[in-house]
Amino acid sequence: MAEKLEVERKYELPDDFTMPSMIGIADVVRVTEPDDQHLDATYYDTAGLRLTSGRMTLRRRSGGHDAGWHLKRPSGGERSELQVPAGDDEQAPPPRITTQVRAVTRGEPLHPVALIRTHRVERGLQDAAGATVALVADDTVETESLIGARVAQRWRELEVELVDGSPDDLTLIDEALRAAGARPSASPSKLSRALGPDHPAAAAKAAGDGGTTGPAKPGDGKRDAGRRALVAYVTEQRDAVVAHDPQARAGDVEAVHDMRVATRRLRSTLRTFAPLLSAYEGDLDRLHDEIKWLTGLLGEVRDGDVMALRLADLLAAEPPELVVGPVAARVSELLAARTQAARERLIEGLDSDRYIALLNDIDALVAAAAAGGPAGKGRMRRLARRAVRRADRRLAAATARPEPVTAGTPAGGTAGTDVALHEARKAYKRARYAAELAAPVAGTPAAKLADRLKDLQDVLGAHQDAIVTAELLREQGMRAFAEGENAFTYGLLHARQAEHGRVALAGLPRARRRATRQKVRRWLW
């Protein structure tokens, strides 16, 4: 199974189009002999064309040099292409494909929606070193839609795919083709043109919404500014969960992190802005708990990855003579086993019906965010202010505890203080997300407050990280001692973490002052 970034351009051609000589364009010194190919492709989608609506295409191609299953997905400004070989008698997409799109299809079956037959004449544009700058494919295309109007069409188009060349090379090639009469294709893909009026974008345009899909949009007046911000924020988090699903399944640590952050933001929105979500027909508390379930699965994996890196750095920073016994191996074994088990639970969760039901419920939340009544700047400000005040109260309670923070405490404070500080951290994270959501309405002041709250949250987070790391070291040290190993290094690192926790808290007063200054909070009132 291979995935690559596909950088290509498509062109419509006039009847009298003649391919220009590309010699001298983008360092091209040679054009290869034409490679004549006959490509037959069956395109698959759900009954409601969920893949096509998400700008994805899935096909089973025969003929050419890359026969098999091809899944194309948006990737930044370009598209990525995943290729999986197909068995001789395989007519249904294999699990290696279906799991990659499950968050989009929501588990609905995939079936043929179009047949596309292409007579391709392909030429390679090569430079002096023999490298292929780009491939130019002159395609004569015949299509048959298998749904709705069942349109049959025939046309000619040109496709240029960058291989070893640069974006600048592609620009020069583009200029040469346009000068010869080629024009950028009005259709994003062969499939979109093949489906004709049944393509989601075409159907939406015919319905009069300008070609967009998704929930109904609130009005453009000032009274709706807050709701527009809410809709955009919730939609962004929903889309992030879906977009990062395939990479999270594959073990990409950043995808797991980004997906987890999106779920946290959704949970925070449910709590802070619940009064604006009254149009949601389900139980918001239950939805919060279900998102929390997914956050937990992602968090177990993410925390294991982060802890492994953290402990590796801590051990690397110690002089070799202070690392006594197989500490690195023991810690690595423990965390690898825990993280692997967490990954298995995550995959099991992502493959479950519960996950699909959750995604559908989040879709309903997006629709509810758009369907509510007017919500202007004032209401958004009041709700955000409530979240900020709640966080302030929690931090005040944590720092007003009678137990002193002394050099003898485990990692910066007593157990009760540490728990209270952690709760304050979570509250400030929620307040920060509220400020982020309100920023499109409140402007720069809200964005500035979000930055200051993040700094405060980071201080409390560094303290919490030290506590969690110290506890794991204590646990491992006790195990090492019980098994007859030298526990010196575990104790040393535990002491280091206690100091890290105290150092982190030393930065709390300044971060707190900066986050509570009038100039970054004035917009809340």
TrEMBL record:
<dbReference type="InterPro" id="IPR023577">
    <property type="entry name" value="CYTH_domain"/>
</dbReference>
<dbReference type="InterPro" id="IPR007899">
    <property type="entry name" value="CHAD_dom"/>
</dbReference>
<protein>
    <submittedName>
        <fullName>CYTH and CHAD domain-containing protein</fullName>
    </submittedName>
</protein>
<feature type="region of interest" description="Disordered">
    <location>
        <begin position="59"/>
        <end position="95"/>
    </location>
</feature>
<feature type="domain" description="CHAD">
    <location>
        <begin position="223"/>
        <end position="517"/>
    </location>
</feature>
<feature type="compositionally biased region" description="Low complexity">
    <location>
        <begin position="197"/>
        <end position="207"/>
    </location>
</feature>
<dbReference type="Pfam" id="PF05235">
    <property type="entry name" value="CHAD"/>
</dbReference>
<feature type="compositionally biased region" description="Basic and acidic residues">
    <location>
        <begin position="63"/>
        <end position="81"/>
    </location>
</feature>
<feature type="region of interest" description="Disordered">
    <location>
        <begin position="181"/>
        <end position="224"/>
    </location>
</feature>
<dbReference type="InterPro" id="IPR038186">
    <property type="entry name" value="CHAD_dom_sf"/>
</dbReference>
<dbReference type="InterPro" id="IPR033469">
    <property type="entry name" value="CYTH-like_dom_sf"/>
</dbReference>
<dbReference type="Pfam" id="PF01928">
    <property type="entry name" value="CYTH"/>
</dbReference>
<feature type="domain" description="CYTH">
    <location>
        <begin position="4"/>
        <end position="198"/>
    </location>
</feature>
